[in-house]
Write a structure and sequence with these properties.
The complex is a heterodimer of chains A (401) and B (220). By secondary structure, chain A is an alpha/beta fold. Chain A is built from 17 helices and 16 strands. The N and C termini of chain B lie far apart (67 Å). Classes of the chains: A alpha/beta (401), B mainly alpha (220).
Chain lengths: 401, 220
C-alpha cells in the first residue's frame, strides 16, 4: 500500500471532464429535498483550479458533484478523471483517492480528532505511525494545534473547528481532486468568511483540483476560478470565470441569479491595480511654494499632494492655502485620503473613500511611495456595463507604469 | 423474625444458588444477544423484514412464562434447555429493538461521509455504525439482564435443579411462608440485578468515552 504514495504525489491535481452527463429521476420519486436532475452536462475542470457549481436548490449541482465519486450514478454520459472513466473504477477505491467534504462535516463522533483525520490513510492500510504523523501535519495545516486537538472528540469542538477538521480529513491521503458540498454553509457568516479566506490561502499552496458546490453566488464569485451557473432541471447556463459571469451574463437567468447588484459584486473582483490611475499635482516638503502654487492653477483639481523626501504622501494642501513665497512645510497638509495599494479591491477602496468622505484615494506602492490617485469616476468607468473583463485587464497594464 | 441460625447453616447453599442464578441469567442474555444481533443486522439491511421480526419478538414476549415452561417440559423435559428457552425468547424483543434503534440513530451525514471516503459496507458497519450504536445496545442489555435475573427465579418451577436463588423463594413458600429462606432468595437476587446494571454502566463508560465527552462552547 505505501508504494502508492510516490505515484499519488506525482499527480497532485486532476483534470475532471463531464461528457454529456445526465441524471433523471422517476417522477414518482420527486419530493422536496430530493436530488435534482442533471441535463446533458458537459464541462472540463482544468487541473489545480477551483470550479464552483452554483444555482438554486433543485438545479442538480449536488447531484453533479456526487456523480464524480459515484455516490450517484449517471443515467447517461461519462465522467473522466485524468481521462479515465470513473465508471470503470471500483467505487470504494475511487473514493479513497478523492477528498470529500460535506456541509454537516460528518465527523465520526466516536473517534478522536486525530483518528478522524486519519480515516482514509487507515482504509489505505498505512502503518499506524505514519497515520498519526499525517494527522498531526494536517491539523497544523488547517490551523489547529495537534497537541490541543488530537485527542479531543468532535462534540468538544466548535462548528468552525469541526469544518476545519473536515477539510484536513479530506486532504489526508493527498488526493489530486477534492469534492466540497456547501462546506461552509452551516457556520455563521463571520466564521464562514474566515474559513473561505483560509481555504483560498490553503489552495494557493496546495493547488488541488476542486469541485465546490454552493447556492451562494457571492461565495461562488469569491472562491471560483471558474463558475458553473446551473438552472433548475440541471441545465448549465454559463461556465466562465467569475468576472465574465458578472460582466456578461449569458442569459436572463444568470443575470437574475447573480443579482441586480452584480456591478457592485464586480467591485470585489477588481483590484486597484487594474484601474487607470489619475496623475495629480505633487510637491515635496521644502520645495519652493510659489512654483508649486502656480502648478495647481494649471490643473482642474484645486489641491496639491504634499510628499515627503522619499515620495511618501503626507496630505493634501488646498491651492488657496499655499503661500506665494518661501518653501512648503509639512504642517500645511490637511488630513488625507485613505492610502490604497494596487492589491486593494475596488470594494474596499470605495468603502474606505466613503468612510473618509472623500472622492479620491491615494495609491501607494509597497514602500509607501505615491503611484497615483484613484477617483470615484475611475471606479465607475471600470464598472461600466460595456467594460468587458478584457477591457479591465487592458486598463491594468496601462496603469501599471 | 429472621432465623440467623438457618442462614448460617445454609451459606454454602446460598453461594451455590447465587452462582447458578448468575449462570442461568448470563447464558440466557448471551444467547439472546447473539440471536438478536443477527436478527437486527438482517432487519437493518432489509428494512421490509424489520416489522415482522419486531412483531414476532413482541408476540413471544406476551406468552406467560409459566405456560411456556409447561409446554416446553413436554418437548425438552426437565433440562436446562427448558429453563433457557423462555429466558432467551424474552430478551429478543428488547435487544432487537435497541440494536436496530442504535443503528438507525447513526446520523445520515456520518454515513454519507463514511461512504464518500471509501468504506466498504462491512467496514462502515463495524467501524462506524456499530460503535455508534453501542450506547443504545448497552441500554438494551441492561434492561434484558435485569429482567432475565428476575425471570430466573421462576425457572425453579420446572425442577428443584434450577431456579437459582428462586429455589429459596419457592421452598420457603412451600414450608408455609418461611420468611428467612424467602429473603435469602429475594435479596441476593435484587443485589445481583443492581450489580449487573452497575457493571454495564461502568463498562459502557469505558468503551464509549466519546459519549461522555463534554460539549464545550469554543469559538472557532
Amino acid at each position: 500500500m505505501p508504494q502508492q504514495m510516490p505515484e499519488q504525489a506525482a499527480r497532485r491535481a486532476a483534470i475532471v471532464q463531464y461528457e454529456h452527463v445526465s441524471k433523471s429521476y422517476a417522477t414518482a420519486k420527486l419530493r422536496r429535498g430530493a436530488p435534482g436532475a442533471v441535463n446533458d452536462l458537459s464541462l472540463t475542470v482544468p487541473a489545480g483550479k477551483i470550479c464552483v457549481l452554483v444555482g438554486p436548490s433543485g438545479c442538480g449541482k449536488t447531484t453533479s458533484l456526487k456523480m464524480v465519486n459515484r455516490l450517484i450514478e449517471p443515467t447517461s454520459g461519462r465522467i473522466l478523471i485524468d481521462g479515465a472513466d470513473v465508471a470503470d473504477r471500483d467505487a470504494t477505491e475511487l473514493r479513497r483517492e478523492i477528498g470529500y467534504v460535506i456541509q454537516q462535516v460528518g465527523l465520526f463522533p466516536h473517534q478522536t480528532i486525530g483518528a478522524n483525520v486519519a480515516v482514509v490513510p487507515r482504509l489505505l492500510g498505512w502503518p499506524a505511525a505514519r497515520q498519526r504523523a499525517r494527522a498531526e501535519e494536517l491539523l497544523s495545516l488547517v490551523g489547529l494545534d495537534p497537541a490541543l486537538y488530537r485527542d479531543r472528540y468532535p462534540a468538544q469542538l466548535s462548528g468552525g473547528e469541526r469544518q476545519r477538521v473536515g477539510v484536513a480529513r479530506a486532504l489526508a491521503a493527498d488526493p489530486p481532486l477534492m469534492l466540497m458540498d456547501e462546506p461552509f454553509g452551516a457556520v455563521d457568516p463571520i466564521v464562514r468568511e474566515r474559513l473561505q479566506n483560509e481555504f483560498l490561502r490553503l489552495q494557493a499552496e496546495l493547488a488541488k483540483t476542486i469541485l465546490f458546490v454552493t447556492h451562494d453566488i457571492d461565495e461562488a464569485i469569491k472562491l471560483g476560478d471558474l463558475v458553473a451557473v446551473m438552472q433548475v432541471g440541471g441545465h448549465l447556463e454559463q461556465f466562465a470565470p467569475p468576472a465574465e459571469i458578472l460582466a456578461a451574463p449569458a442569459s436572463e437567468f444568470v443575470a437574475d441569479f447573480v443579482g441586480a447588484d452584480r456591478g457592485l459584486k464586480r467591485l470585489s473582483l477588481t483590484r486597484v491595480g487594474e484601474v487607470a490611475l489619475q496623475p495629480v499635482v505633487t510637491a515635496r516638503v521644502g520645495d519652493p511654494a510659489g512654483e508649486a502654487r502656480a502648478r495647481t492653477f494649471e490643473d482642474p483639481f484645486p489641491y496639491l499632494l504634499l510628499l515627503d523626501p522619499s515620495d511618501r504622501p503626507i496630505g493634501w494642501v488646498n491651492q488657496r492655502h499655499i503661500p506665494g513665497t518661501g518653501t512648503l512645510a509639512a504642517s500645511l497638509a490637511t488630513p488625507m485620503s485613505p492610502l490604497l495599494d494596487r492589491r486593494t479591491t475596488l470594494k474596499d477602496a470605495l468603502s474606505m473613500m466613503l468612510d473618509a468622505d472623500v472622492q479620491t484615494g491615494i495609491v501607494v506602492d509597497r514602500a509607501g511611495r505615491l503611484r497615483g490617485v484613484l477617483t470615484v469616476e475611475a471606479i465607475a468607468a471600470a464598472l461600466r456595463p460595456s467594460a468587458d473583463p478584457d477591457g479591465i485587464a487592458a486598463g491594468a497594464s496601462g496603469a501599471g507604469a | 423474625m429472621i432465623d440467623w441460625g438457618w442462614l448460617a447453616g445454609h451459606l454454602d447453599a446460598i453461594a451455590y444458588r447465587t452462582a447458578q442464578h448468575v449462570y442461568l441469567a448470563a447464558l440466557g442474555v448471551a444467547i439472546g444477544f447473539a440471536i438478536s444481533f443477527v436478527l437486527a443486522l438482517v432487519a437493518a439491511r432489509h428494512r421490509a423484514l424489520y416489522p415482522p421480526i419486531s412483531a414476532l419478538a413482541g408476540i413471544l414476549y406476551t406468552i406467560p412464562s409459566l405456560a411456556l415452561f409447561a409446554a416446553l417440559i413436554s418437548i425438552t423435559g426437565f433440562s436446562v434447555v427448558t429453563a433457557e428457552v423462555p429466558l432467551v425468547l424474552y430478551t429478543l424483543v428488547i435487544l432487537v429493538r435497541n440494536i436496530v434503534a442504535g443503528l438507525d440513530g447513526v446520523p445520515a451525514e456520518v454515513l454519507e461521509a463514511a461512504d464518500g471516503m471509501g468504506h466498504t459496507r462491512r467496514q462502515r458497519l463495524w467501524r462506524v455504525e456499530l460503535p455508534l450504536a453501542v450506547p443504545l445496545i448497552v441500554a438494551g442489555l441492561r434492561l434484558a439482564t435485569v429482567s432475565t435475573i428476575g425471570l430466573v427465579t421462576i425457572t425453579g418451577t420446572i425442577s428443584d435443579a434450577f431456579g437459582g436463588l428462586g429455589y429459596f423463594i419457592l421452598d420457603g413458600y412451600n414450608r408455609g411462608n418461611f420468611l428467612t429462606e424467602m429473603y435469602a432468595g429475594a435479596f441476593p437476587s435484587i443485589l445481583l440485578a443492581l450489580g449487573a446494571d452497575l457493571l454495564f454502566v461502568r463498562a459502557q463508560r469505558r468503551v464509549t468515552p466519546w459519549a461522555n465527552a463534554r460539549t464545550v462552547e469554543a469559538t472557532s
